[in-house]
Amino acid sequence: MLKLFIAFILTQSMLFACALCNMYSPETKVSVEVVSTDNTIENLKFNWEFSDPFTQQLIEIYDSNLNGMLEAKELKLIEQALIDYIQPKSFLTHISYGNIINKEKSDPFKVVSHHLYMKENLLQFAYSLKVNYPILNDYVLFIKVNDDEEYFLLIMDPHTQRFEHTSSINQIVSKQAVLFSISQRTAVQNQTAATISDEKVKQKQAASSQTYLDYFTNIVKANLQKVKQGDLWALITLMFISFIYGVVHAIGPGHGKALTFAYFSAYKRSYFKAFVISLCTAFVHIVGAIILVMVSYFILNTFLNRFVSDALFWLTNISAVMIMVLALYIFVLKYKKNSCSCCSCASHTHGENKKRDLYFVLTAGLIPCAGTVILFIYAFILKTYLAVILAAVFISLGMAVVIFASSFLGVSLHKLSNQSHKITRILEMGSPVVMFILGMLLLLSTLL
Fold first, then answer.
1. Domains in the chain, please, with CATH?
2. pLDDT, tens digit, for every residue of 306-347?
């Protein structure tokens, strides 16, 4: 039972957490200004104010000249990525005007302008809608902003909603909607508020303090800029920092260390074989990031698209299922071997071992690494492809060192267990059980 105890202790800090490294919904304050004449509502002006953490993330990625600011060229790239996401979704805006509110279908509108800019060190996005509504007594203007996919957490600012008119305008603001009631008499707020249903909003906060990933990205960006100018020493520094990052990042939660430990505890392997498999696992981890960024850039032409987040979600789920399938397969093989002493059950061909090892490599390395995703984004922005590929290789080597340490412990534990047939049986039957639990926990972490 020693193996099971050690494995469960390791799982507390070694679960696959890489896919969840830096995903959160940026809180965005929304302001609305209703532009009207005496008889007509002509335009609706919206302004989104993005949070400081989200603004800083975009500066880290798109600030190609490292001046700590987003200039016109850089803002244009971000605006295009944002438009690509919100335009097919009607700018995440729902409008209804009349004596009855239609919450199911929005009135048609035309976007006449949009502009991304910086104000007081915060990213702002403004857009204007053409509506041409006649101003009639007892009519209601209902405006709602919402992202169904929860990439943006849009919240109406109760202090910045404006509708100035000679008529009496009563205003009710909820978290994601604002209602303007046009009347010659004072409306009862409680009756009007009943027309707006409360929206349940998930708030995901990102830590504002600088993490080692932030520190790494800042160093990478600075060195890539120098590499672009022909600085060879910057390239050497970049490779060294990438290797250190690979080691530190792999020591943290995830990256298959517990899975690797359990796998090599179940099977007799040489240390060289364990090293090769560890290296391949880390390499696949990097290749996954390359493919993800290339698909995002060449097919979707944006780095802010929901595709990256969704891809990580599905890759995590697929990896979890593959882990559980592999665990069940190993458990069945070990059960047959221990319950039957015939030669056909006790022996395994070299080809079967290779297939099983290949399946394990793909399973353990399927989820891309956040650090390498950021690296390849910089590659396309700064056009430093060779330097980024070298940095990714050294990240892979750094991760391989840590993964090999886990596999080394697994191989060593299996060799020690050979002194006792009972301990060997516990290891061989217990290891796939631990692997199955790891896969199940990984799956539950994305679904709950």
1. 27-182 (2.70.170), 213-337+353-445 (no CATH)
2. 555 565 566 667 766 776 777 787 777 766 665 555 555 545
Identify whether the C-beta of residue 387 lies closer than 8 Å to the C-beta of residue 238.
yes
Give 97's strand partners.
141
What is d(CA 424, CA 426) in angstroms, rounded to the nearest whole number?
A: 5
In angstroms, the CA 73 to CA 122 distance is 17
Distance CA 127, CA 2 (A): 63
pTM attached to this predicted model: 0.51
Mean pLDDT of the 374-402 span: 80
Residues 17, 19, 22, 23, CA torsion sign: negative
Is there a contact between 254 and 98 (Cβ–Cβ < 8 Å)?
no
Neighbouring CB atoms inside 10 A of 218's CB total 13
User: Could you tell me which residues come within 8 angstroms of residue 256 by beta carbon, excluding any fewer than 6 positions away?
Assistant: 16, 281, 364, 365, 403, 406
Interhelix angle 350-364/257-266, rounded to 10 degrees, is 170
Q: Is it the case that residue 21 has pLDDT exceeding 90?
A: no
